[in-house]
């Protein structure tokens, strides 16, 4: 099933919500400490569809890691967003549009209401969604 919402905190587990567990607490399905641990799964999910892999609020390094993992650069849609509100809005819109097979978002801490809205958007659109709490580290300019 594609009704999945993943919440990734760089220090905790990846959580998956399925229709059977929607009203209950999040169930941890895999332990991961970084994006690198998710790359094989993301690659496998991207092969199931010819839709976008939408990346929101990430650095160029994240996009390069996705390409190195085998996800076609021509299928990656990269949205920066100037602030938390724009990234949250872009994530919700990417989920509701139904044009992405995967949405990866770096949003920081989410209000419970926002988290619930994103879960519902993911469920309605049948889009895999991974939400990261921490912003990826920025490479210094010097």
TrEMBL record:
Q: Which InterPro entries match?
A: P-loop_NTPase
Q: Which Gene3D superfamilies match?
A: P-loop containing nucleotide triphosphate hydrolases
UniProt-recorded name of the protein: SOS-response cell division inhibitor
Taxonomic placement: Bacteria, Pseudomonadati, Pseudomonadota, Gammaproteobacteria, Alteromonadales
